[in-house]
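Before going further, it is useful to explain how the protein records used in this thesis are read. An example of such a record is reproduced below.

***
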Amino acid sequence: MKEVGGQAVIEGVMMRSEDDVALAVRSPEGNIIVKHEKISEKKKRSVFRLPILRGMYSLVQALVIGVKYLTISANIAATDPKEEEGELTTAEITTTILMAMSIGIFLFILLPQGISKLIENFITTNPYYINLLEGISRIIIFLGYVFSISRLDDIEKVFKYHGAEHKAIYAFESEEELTVENAKRYPRLHPRCGTSFLMFVMVISMLVFSVIAVDTWYIKVLCKILLMPVVAGISFEFIKMAGRNFENPIIRTLVKPGLWLQYLTTREPEDEQLEVAIAALKEAIGEGIYQDTCEDEG
């Protein structure tokens, strides 16, 4: 069986299988617009098949694809689908990714680093306690960020599509026929969700960053930035292991915090969101039936 994953976007869902990316979006007229793209097979013949490295590669690839299809979905949801769409330029995608990375570096590296400096000045100079408290502050910032985002009315429907994505994937993994009624029966929380992945990143970063033995703050920040791909690669391996061994009681215990966090980032979907998620999934696994599918060879 193909391993599939997905991402909620504006008025739709993007689904990925091993070789394909598919996007399904509900247009203003109520139609489902489906797009399809082949994924590069370079990883299959390269060093990026190795553990940890494949996680680094997958993270970068997911970021590029996610930003691209998030922008495409926003264009479709806001305009007449019969109008010709402009292609996203490399510069536009790169700029958006760099902005997102800059915000992430500030929130989850620079800000916790500043907090750790305060801890060192006013609480303790023990490096182990400083690293632990910095890691806890990073998790608190992350939880606060997720909670703040979850309160925004504008993304309520995005969270419904997120829940629909999970339910559709569960139905596929259970080898059920991909229908709305079948997908409804499954939970909206999934162990391989990106939300759970980020929780792993927060925890694993505490362990990885503890090896940094420098005092100069800007060198320490630079080291943390350079180590983030390693953190992501290790987290990727954990999330894949969790998805394959979810019935193991130890694994279930380890992933519970990430599952609980998904209560903030998912909502129970309606039938219209499930229809879109199923359309994207069918297209990604080669069972698409929509005549207005637009296939882009990438």
About this structure: The first strand starts at residue 5 and ends at 9. The chain has one domain: 5-296. The longest helix spans residues 90-122.
